[in-house]
Amino acid sequence: MSYYIGIDGGGTSTIFCLADCNGNVIDIIKLKSTNYHVMGIEETKETIKNAIDFFTEKKSISLNEIKSICFGGSGVDSEKCKETIINIFRDIGYRNELQVYNDSVIALVGANDGYNGGIIISGTGSVGLVIDKKNRLNKVGGWGHILDDGGSGYFIGREALSKIMKNYDGRECKTLLWDKIREKLKINNQEEIINFVYKDKLPKKDIAGLAPIVIELYNKDKVAKDIVNSAVDSLTIMVETLIEKAQGADISIGLYGSILTKSNIIRDKLIERVNSKHPKVNIHLPYKEAYIGAVDIATRRVKIQN
Question: Are β-strands 252-256 and 282-284 bridged in parallel, bridged antiparallel, or unpaired?
Answer without folding.
Answer: parallel
